[in-house]
Amino acid sequence: xxxxxxxxxxxxxxxxxxxxxxxxxxxxxxxxxxxxxxxxxxxxxxxxxxxxxxxxxxxxxxxxxxxxxxxxxxxxxxxxxxxxxxxxxxxxxxxxxxxxxxx
Length: 103
Prior knowledge:
- The structure is a single chain.
- By secondary structure, the chain is an alpha+beta fold.
- The chain is built from 4 helices and 5 strands, in the order βαβαβαβαβ.
- The strands form 2 sheets. Strands 2-1-5 form a 3-stranded antiparallel β-sheet. Strands 3-4 form a two-stranded antiparallel ribbon.
- The relative contact order is 0.16.
């Protein structure tokens, strides 16, 4: 005689909604120096916003070197922030640090 057992079916859970985690970098507002605020267009901004606005300024003024696109040739306004010489785009963030402070 075979004994048949009933299997218990597990109730299916509703799938979790994927929420995007907020990085502290996108939430911290920094106070910008007067020179950087002139380029960015505001006195306070998050770090990603600052970098995006600086890149928008660089592209609008066509300040990237024609041959070596990694180099940025600053104009008078940008030279106050990045320095007078051409700068590598990877070193730009360290130059921006001098003009950004917690606020």
